[in-house]
Specification:
This is Lipoprotein. The protein is built from 7 helices and 12 strands. It is of the alpha+beta class. A 10-stranded antiparallel β-sheet has the order 5-4-3-2-1-11-10-9-8-7. The chain has a two-stranded parallel ribbon with strand order 6-12.
């Protein structure tokens, strides 16, 4: 008998952890306050949308960057994060309404694809994920059988299960980016180039002493194009305000959560 509830819980934990540890700027899988409430302090009275950002002081630049990121309609995040002495890789696109799609992978465990809309969540763990989680839960002999049963299948439903329900919360990327102080104790740290974008860089230190560097676009909207921390990893931001649509998986590739529980018990 497979520990089905714990398998799904493992998937949810991995997904939520991906956004919960990103460079230390978000600490839970819960959504933060709506980013639409982001506002500039009096010292930064207007967005620097069409001008050079090089001349701005560190505090003004950080405030403008937070304002610009908080107003995004959509964004893509790519990165590698250190989680429990392992590397987690992320590729996620999300919009303000928490529609999102992408993948999260933990090096030794496997990869999970996620698609989420306002009314549905689908997750598709790969074969390595199923076998790894089964082994961790003491059911290693069932891992390959479960992986074969669910090969190419998406799980959906399970709205009453708290673990699966929380998967959707990871899609609050825009709120998460601007939750709290984006760049505490910021100091300017020169300029550079990230993925072809010239940047003005800020070094910051958060409450637990973690050091990070924010790379902010030097021209136009002061979007954060990279966050990097020696301790926690690196994430890049791109496709700012680029519309996207989450495609529902084909019906024959979807298995309901309740049916999943029943089927998993037989393998």
């Amino acid at each position: 008998m497979m520990p089905t509830r714990r398998l799904v819980a493992g998937a949810a934990v991995l997904l939520i952890a991906a956004t919960g540890t990103a460079c230390g700027h978000r600490t839970t899988g819960r959504a933060a306050a709506p980013a639409a409430s982001a506002s500039l302090p009096a010292s930064a009275s207007a967005p620097a949308s069409t001008t050079s950002n090089d001349a701005l002081g560190a505090d003004d630049l950080a405030a403008r960057a937070k304002y610009a990121m908080g107003r995004l309609s959509s964004v893509t995040v790519d990165g590698t994060i250190h989680v429990d002495q392992e590397e987690m890789t992320i590729h996620l696109t999300a919009d303000r309404d928490k529609n999102c799609q992408g993948t999260v992978a933990l090096g030794s465990i496997g990869e999970v694809e996620v698609r989420h809309t306002g009314s549905h969540t689908w997750i598709k763990p790969d074969a390595r994920f199923w076998t790894s989680i089964a082994a961790e839960q003491g059911a290693g002999s069932s891992g390959q059988a479960v992986a074969e049963v669910f090969k190419g299948r998406y799980l959906t439903g399970g709205e009453d299960d708290a673990n699966l329900k929380e998967v959707s919360e990871m899609c609050g990327l825009i709120e998460g980016i601007t939750d709290g102080d984006l760049a505490p104790d910021a100091v300017k740290a020169g300029t550079g180039t990230v993925n072809g974008t010239r940047t003005v860089n800020l070094q910051t230190t958060d409450g637990d002493g973690t050091h990070s560097t924010l790379y902010i676009a030097a021209e136009g909207e002061p979007y954060v194009v990279r966050m990097e921390s020696p301790e926690q990893g690196r994430v890049d931001f791109s496709a700012f305000d680029v519309p996207f649509t989450v495609q529902a998986p084909p019906a024959d590739a979807v298995i309901d959560y309740t049916a999943f529980q029943q089927k998993a018990k037989t393998v």
